[in-house]
Amino acid sequence: MWSSRLFWRLFLSYSALTVAAAVAFAVVFQGRQREAVEIEVQERLRDEAIVVQSLAEAAWESPDAPVEELRAVWQPKLEALGMQIGTRLTLIQADGTVLADSATDARLLENHRDRPEIQLAIETGVAFKHRSSQSIHEEFEYCAVRVGSKESPRGFVRIALPWTPFETRLKATARFVAGTTTIVTMLALLATYWMARRLVGPLETLTHAAQAIAAGDVSQEVRVPNRDEIGMLAAAFNTMSNELTRRWEQLQSNRRERDENSELMETVLGSMIEGVVVIDARQRILYANPAAGPLLDFPSFRATGRSLFEAARHPRVQKVVEEVLAGRVPERVEYEVPRTNAIVALIASPLPGEPPPGAVLVLHDVSHLRRLENLRREFVSNVSHELKTPLTTIQAYTETLIDGAVDDPNINRKFLERIDEQAERLHRLILDLLSLARIESAEEAYELMPITVAETVRVCIDEHQAVAASKGVSLIVEPPTEEIVVWADEEGLLTVLNNLVDNAIKYTASGGRVTVRWRPDERRAVIEVEDTGIGIPKQHQSRVFERFFRVDKARSRELGGTGLGLSIVKHWVQVFGGTVEVISELGRGTKFVIRVPRR
Ligand code: ADP
Question: Engineered SS bond to 140: which of 74, 160, 325, 571, CB 3.0-4.6 Å?
Fold first, then answer.
């Protein structure tokens, strides 16, 4: 309240008005009072003067009578009369000589010709003057009446009433008026205060409530008991506030719902592998999820707001987007991202509306799928080719035998041996293919168990010792001091070692060495099969684990290779949860390093 400017403006202006009115009233009232008293006194004086005038006319009947004589007559008369009527009576000669005076001895009085009331009376006949007496130094209201005509006055009657009693009365009245006015003013000020408070209080409450609403606290209710316009304003304010609260809550709940939805949407879209891009009719990107970036080859976090083709300049994308925005049926295209060589499938669908206000692009990396398809196609063709070669050979020899060679003892045996060789090759090929297919189809189902590496290596070495010796290759085993047990499949680990040792012997010339060693490495076991053979050219090293890949096809075939050995190795190692790598130098030797988890 005390800080309310409106309150102070109202209170101070009404208070100033009240005080001004009270002061004006007191001043005017007092003035009127004084005037009324003066008029009353003057009327009384005039009446008395007229009476005395008729009496005093006798004093000037004989104009030549000596002054002293007249004084002797009139002085006592006036004294008696003055006493009776309580006024001061003075008879003054036309020349100003005081003939008699009821208050003082006339002989002592100076000439009164220059007294203002006498001067006035010469002119007007009757004159009043309020002044202090020069003779007795007291304030009087004087009334002078001329006796005789203006041109030749015979004398003057002057009547005076002492002013002091009237002044006292006036002062008492003034005090009373001032007191009453002060009390009334105080009451009026109190009333003003109360009124201003009553007016400003509810307004202040309303202001605070409105400020609180403006600051965001919408649940404001004001209590104003007034039944006037302010009360109505407060009621309207409460209705408004309730409505505002209702709308605010609705808005909040909508927003919460929207936030939750968009958060959910963001999470879903953010965790998708597929890229999702939303564009408007002007092909401006409205949204792009993180996966969309690499698929369109643009940074998705900075893509929003940019033109789609500023971000991704693929002509196929451009074409399909233009067609969809033109209202044609959604289409699916595939394109290759130039930088990463990824193959991306894009489906563009228009947003609902005519014409479409935008489109949603869904992008899917199908490189893996395409690569698998290619691999499968390649594999089928490779398998067919690998099977065809021995079969064609078998067929050719069989036909030659049927055509008569069977009876030629010089060649029939040789032909049959060739057929056997090719059948053996077919057999190996089919065994390898079956083995590969088995590992691939049951990758998850293998139950790994602890296998002692030394034991498996021993079996492998036993199997290859004879071949190595016949080829003039020394087979060396370098076991560690401690026993190493790995998590693996017994048959699988043996196959891995067999294939590696087999290759090592195959591709190492006589006099060379093949070394098998193993050691622990943190939580893994490292098994190495190293040879001093022909080595693998650098550019082929990454491909040797591919199916049917052979550095030198003819040589491999000659040595009875199928091109599947290392592929089988890689699959088994993956089943064990390990890795395989090749380190090789052309002409100096090759080392295959396998890392598998230890028990
Ligand atoms: P293959 O049955 O032909 O040996 P693999 O899958 O076992 O098929 O090996 C693939 C190719 O990798 C071989 O044809 C050969 O060219 C090369 N290779 C494998 N092991 C060695 C090795 N120890 N030394 C040199 N070349 C090797």
Answer: 160
Whether 531 is in the pocket of ligand 1, judged by its Cβ within 6 Å, is yes
Report which protein residue has its CA nearest ligand 1's atom 7. 565
Per the DSSP assignment, residues forming a β-bridge with 345 are: 334, 364
Ligand 1 centroid distance, CA of 251 (Å): 71
Alpha helix segments (H runs only) across 403-531:
412-441, 453-471, 490-506
Residue 138's SS3 state is coil
DSSP character for 353?
Answer: S
Mutate which of 566, 571, 583, 588 for ligand 1 pocket (most atoms within 8 A of beta carbon): 566
Tell me the three-class secondary structure of 234-247, residue by residue.
HHHHHHHHHHHHHH
Nearest atom (ligand 1) to Cα of 531 = 23
Per-run averaged pLDDT (10 residues), the chain, 599 residues: 81 92 92 91 89 81 79 88 89 90 87 91 91 84 90 89 90 92 93 87 84 82 78 86 87 90 88 92 90 80 80 81 84 84 91 89 92 88 90 94 88 91 92 88 78 96 96 96 94 95 96 96 94 95 91 84 92 94 96 96
Q: Is 589 in the pocket of ligand 1 (CB under 6 A)?
A: no
User: Is the separation of the CB atoms in 531 and 513 below 8 Å?
Assistant: yes
| Token pair 């395989």: residue | 580
Task: Calculate how far, in angstroms, residue 119's C-alpha sits from the geometric centre of ligand 1.
Answer: 160
Ligand 1 centre to CA of 112 (Å) is 164
Q: Which residue, 362, 334, 374, is CA-closest to 273?
A: 362
C-alpha–C-alpha distance, residues 115 and 157, integer Å? 13
Residue 483's φ and ψ, nearest 5 degrees, are: -85, 135
Residue 218 is predicted with a pLDDT of 75
- Would you mind telling me the total number of residues written for the chain in this entry? 599
List residues bridging with 99 in a β-sheet. none
Dist CA 461 CA 453 (whole Å): 12
- Where do we find the tokens 């293998």? 446
SS3 state of residue 119: helix
- Tell which one of 507, 545, 581 to mutate to probe ligand 1, the residue whose CB is within 8 A of the most ligand atoms: 507
Closest CA to 572 of 591, 594, 548, 557: 594
Query: Is the minimum distance from the CB of 429 to ligand 1 under 6 angstroms?
Result: no
CB-based contact 496:461 (threshold 8 Å): no
Task: State the alpha helices, DSSP H only, in 313-442.
Answer: 315-325, 367-402, 412-441
